[in-house]
Amino acid sequence: MVLFVIMSSSQASAFSRTFVRFDRMKLSTATTGTVCANPGTVAVENDVQVTFPTGYTVSATVGNWTVDTTNTAWPTGGTAWPGIGTATAAAAQVVTFPSTDLTVGTLYCFNWNNTASVSVKSSATASNSGSISTRTSVPATIETSNYSTASITDDQIVVTASVSQTFSFALSANTDALGTLSTGAITSSATPRTTTISTNAKNGWLVWAKDSSTGLNSASAAATVASTTPGTNSTIVAGTEGYNTGITQSQVSGSGTITVATPFVGGVSGKGGGLDTTLRTLATSTGTANTAVVTLTNNATIGSTTASATDYTDTITVIGAGLF
Residues of the chain with pLDDT > 70: what percent? Predict the structure, then answer.
């Protein structure tokens, strides 16, 4: 009599897709990461085991294996892994996480989010193999698949760049005709001249000015309508000889706050400060500027004894610099 013995064996199925991403791949670097798997077998899952590659340092402290289901650029279709939680066991290279039942055909993902959990191996190698397995409560393996990763010398690219310092400075025009002065009124610039500053100087900028003769000077009459109180603010009055420059400001954009120097604050007819042959600060800013405009309004009035002449003139030098 011949006895035939028929033996059968079962083998766990493989996932249709698996994915393990290490958020750092640099040698000996502690890292977080992501696990994804797409089940293809109908069963009731109780836990998922992740086996890390040989040489990777795996913490045996389960409290270090905390997780979350935030979608951190998961593969398309990735869905939060149901029932996932802090690991229940960690031994050698294998870490066990709780799970609830999974639906066939869905790509489930979770992240381990504590860098104290695992570190990349200390040598640069390709095809570092590990595996993912789901199990029943028995426990019995439902599905298992391998994955592969790499460890590299450095996983970062250091990007460097430079930005050149910039500073532009322009006067709107180089003449300011006040016309015929009168004792009966204050004469102000019909078209006040402006200086426009644009700069990336992070600490700001300054504008200075001085004039050639501390007033409006006539060579033919050997007379001067003197600048009014250089260094202090003043408002000249019709009929009393006086001459000053009032400053206002504006800015399209920039990080800086513009301040007009106190002696030169203008904005009111006849208000400003006298210039002399010493450079005096007109305005300052605390930061960068895109089209900062400093407006210079010259004001003059004469008295009844001011000498007549047609050649009263003054030359104002205006300069600026960035504080880089």
Answer: 97
- 163 to 190, 201, 227, 256, 320: CA distances (angstroms): 40, 11, 43, 19, 21
pTM above 0.90, yes or no: no
pLDDT at residue 12, rounded to an integer:
77
Q: Distance between CA atoms of 235 and 220, rounded to whole angstroms? A: 28
6 residue type, one letter:
I
Provide the CATH topology of domain 17-151. Answer: Immunoglobulin-like (2.60.40)
Q: How many helices (H) and strands (E) does the chain have?
A: 0, 26
Asked if 210 and 276 count as a contact pair (C-beta separation under 8 A), the reply is: yes
Instruction: Name the one residue in this structure whose structure tokens are 């010493």.
Output: 278
The string of DSSP codes covering 84-145 is --S-SEEETTEEEEE-----TT--EEEEE--TTSEE--SS-EEEEEEEEEEE-SS--EEEEE
